[in-house]
Amino acid sequence: DAGVIQSPRHEVTEMGQEVTLRCKPISGHNSLFWYRQTMMRGLELLIYFNNNVPIDDSGMPEDRFSAKMPNASFSTLKIQPSEPRDSAVYFCASSLAWGTGGELFFGEGSRLTVL
Amino acid sequence: QQQVKQSPQSLIVQKGGISIINCAYENTAFDYFPWYQQFPGKGPALLIAIRPDVSEKKEGRFTISFNKSAKQFSLHIMDSQPGDSATYFCAASNTGTASKLTFGTGTRLQVTL
What we know:
The complex is a heterodimer. Chain A is mainly β. Helix content of chain A is 0%, strand content 54%. The radius of gyration of chain A is 13 Å and the shape is globular. Chain B contains no helices and 11 strands. Chains A and B meet through strand 5 and strand 10 of A and strand 5 of B.
């Protein structure tokens, strides 16, 4: 079975550019999460969706960040404009039946470097 | 109140030794405590999880010990192997409210030969 698929795996961009990260969750999973990982702050939850609806976006750092889930098999995290402090590894994770202690399945991450 | 505090930040253990990682939480509503393992270049993966109705859960060489009154839980890795070298994250959530999973800051484990 295919796991959570993220693209791109690596992205290097210049400050001010728009960045779009993509995620395909595991088929049948109804919850999707976007995390950011840095050495300083560890794993931070940015936003999560349940049945394609955003439930909690309190972790989104600022208006430059936006996330969408147009259907059950695709989500995007967009940063516009990007800044050097956005450099991090961004993980997408999906889960079946979240809320009952369902396991999170993480993708391999998208490493973003903003110069 | 949502924090999960994890220690140590890093740990070096000899092959065959016992690795112990500790976590503490404040929110008494938390009722689900998983541990995730992350290898370099990979995403975290669920290793083992416990609910507060038991004080210990064992899966192979991995054991979670849970102390509800102290609001602490720990991961023990018995007979540690070089292949266990990874970063370990504890986490907690309140499944009753489907709250988000709050992760600890991680422990980088290195098992030496």
